[in-house]
């Protein structure tokens, strides 16, 4: 599942971001962090490591994540959650592009998938910082 150094580094970064956001954020951040964590692990488990064919199971997971993130963005409406949903839509679009045009080189698809995934994590991290700042503003002054 996490056999390459790149996937192991990604796992550490994802876990660190999700833990930070879960600690620092409010309810929206905690829900988004839990969904990102579960989705990242499920996606890695479902991945076909040969990359000879489109990743249909991973695509189905990403479609589900897209629906969840768009729903969360419509419910809570912070900008960081909207950005997270947008980058997840682009992740899903990468799968559809590979299905629609199989001539797309797998390495290009993997690279795009990784870029969008890290931008999802960056948006989540932004949400964690926003939650931390919000908590500090709400704290009573000494």
Describe this structure in words.
There is one protein chain. It contains 5 helices and no strands. It is 82% helix and 0% strand. The protein is elongated, with a radius of gyration of 16 Å. By secondary structure, it is mostly helical. The chain has helices at residues 5-24, 27-46, 56-76, 79-100, 106-138. The chain has one domain (27-137). The N and C termini lie far apart (49 Å).
In short:
This protein is mainly alpha-helical and 142 residues long. The chain has helices spanning 5-24, 27-46, 56-76, 79-100, 106-138. The chain starts with a helix and ends with a helix.
Task: Based on the model shown, name its key terms.
142 residues, mainly alpha, 5 helices
Please write the string of helix (H) and strand (E) elements: HHHHH
**In DSSP terms, counting alpha (H) and pi (I) runs of 4 or more, how many helices?**
5
* Class computed from helices, strands and strand pairing: mainly alpha
- Separation of termini? 49 Å
Give the radius of gyration: 16 Å
Average pLDDT, all residues: 90
Please state the overall shape, judged from the principal axes of the Cα atoms. elongated
What is the helix fraction of residues, given as a range? over 70%
- Weakly predicted, low-confidence segments: none
**Number of DSSP strand runs:** 0
Tell me the major beta sheet.
none
Number of structurally distinct domains: 1
Work out the strand percent.
under 5%
């Amino acid at each position: 599942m996490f056999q390459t150094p790149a996937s192991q580094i990604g796992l550490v970064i994802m876990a660190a971001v999700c833990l930070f956001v879960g600690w620092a954020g409010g309810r929206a951040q905690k829900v988004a962090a839990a969904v990102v964590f579960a989705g990242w692990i499920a996606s890695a488990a479902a991945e076909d490591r040969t990359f000879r064919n489109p990743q249909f199971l991973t695509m189905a997971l990403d479609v589900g994540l897209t629906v969840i993130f768009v729903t969360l963005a419509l419910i809570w409406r912070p900008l960081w959650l909207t950005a997270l949903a947008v980058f997840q839509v682009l992740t899903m679009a990468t799968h559809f592009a590979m299905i629609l045009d199989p001539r797309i080189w797998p390495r290009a698809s993997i690279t795009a998938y990784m870029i969008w995934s890290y931008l999802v994590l960056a948006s989540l991290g932004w949400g964690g910082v926003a939650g931390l700042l919000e908590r500090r503003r709400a704290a009573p002054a000494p």
